[in-house]
Amino acid sequence: MTLAQPTRPLPAKRRLTRKQRRLTLIAAAGAVLFLAAGLVLFAMRDTIVFFYGPTEIAEKGVQPGTRMRLGGLVEAGSVQRNGGQRISFSVTDGKTSIKVGYDGLLPDLFREGQGVVTEGVFEGAGRFKADSVLAKHDETYMPREVADALKKQGHWQAGGSGSPAAAPAKP
Prior knowledge:
By secondary structure, the chain is an alpha+beta fold. It has helices at residues 18-43, 54-60, 144-153, and strands at 66-74, 80-81, 86-92, 97-103, 115-124, 127-135.
């Protein structure tokens, strides 16, 4: 004869109320959204910048084939027209220069010593193939990013006339 163990009733499964289920679903959706936004921002960390200067490109060691924007000044004496709409010129920040090749019509205000932002593909070895060129719009305007980069290098003076690269910035 065996002694029977007293049996306890099994506890009933705890069920979530409708309000608790809704809050759990909202919290899970919020966590997924937060994770997705974090992954997107992490992936875009280098492309959020409006443009890179020639020195930044050289220091970062950008891989050939990378699509980006290059900004700086059109180097004096570097503009060469290669027949038709082909043109090559150098973009500089006063420290480093990158040779740019472009096929197409240039903006009317494009000239040596002026601020420019080009968009295209970095080909490596100091060469950039542009598919669009943006120039400043009047005699006193320069994109803030270009002006800031040139001020850091000491090659731009606000409100100055002539070539901005000729006058060092005042401390």
